[in-house]
Amino acid sequence: MIVISDTTPLRYLIEIEEVHILEKLFGQVIIPEKVYEELQGKKTPQKVKEWIQSPPSWLEVRQADLSLFTPERPIQDGEREAIALAIELKPDALLLDDEDAMKEAYRLKIPFLRTFRILEEAAKKNFLGDLTKVVEKMSQTSFYMPPNELIDAMLERDRQRKEQKERQAHAKPAEDED
After folding, report:
1. How far is the C-alpha of 73 from the C-alpha of 162, rounded, in Å?
2. CA-to-CA distance for 32 and 19, rounded, in angstroms?
3. In the chain, what is the greatest distance between 2 CA atoms, to the nearest angstrom?
4. DSSP string for 126-149
């Protein structure tokens, strides 16, 4: 599976100490050089800077060929490089959260996942502890949170999944009739 990430998903998953879910979900994640640089920026939390200075083996940094992509919308350099890399590598998913970058990915038919979708997928596969607590941790960062209705719907789906698993775990097998 080929997965490329922009800065935002990595930064905030590191910040809330849930970045391990990327390896569990995708195996390997590729980032362009600009994203690597952005994860060490002046305003980046120290925890994130320390993490990227000793990146795990599942994270790969690659140079993007910017000649492959000219954006139609104003996007930042990390997003531009991530999309250029996606054009070149044809990934299974591009991880990003910026609205204009998502519109560019959509225009180019590049499949993408937002951070909260990644969190929900990880919860479905039991790679996270309590999704409600994870959402609470995210709300304490500078991450631009989705509307409450979307978060509430995601948490409701998670609650229903857990209830269904609980029911299945306690369901008695049907007894054989004579």
Report:
1. 41
2. 17
3. 74
4. T-SS-HHHHHHHHHTSS--PPPHH
User: Could you tell me the residue ranges of all domains in the chain?
Assistant: 1-170
Sheet with 3-5, edge to edge strand ranges = 59-62, 29-32, 3-5, 93-95, 112-113
Q: Beta 93-95 vs 3-5: how paired, if at all?
A: parallel
Mean pLDDT along residues 120-148: 94
29-32/59-62 β-pairing: parallel
- CATH code linked to domain 1-170: 3.40.50.1010
Q: What pTM does this model have?
A: 0.89
Helix (H, G, I), strand (E, B) or coil at 41: coil
Nearest-angstrom CA–CA distance, 12 and 143: 7
Q: How far is CA 14 from CA 55, 90, 93, 109, 152, in A?
A: 11, 25, 19, 28, 23
pLDDT of residue 176 exceeding 70, the answer is no
Closest CA to 96 of 113, 116, 109, 108: 113
Segment 36-51 mean pLDDT: 95
Report the C-alpha gap between 126 and 129 in whole angstroms.
7
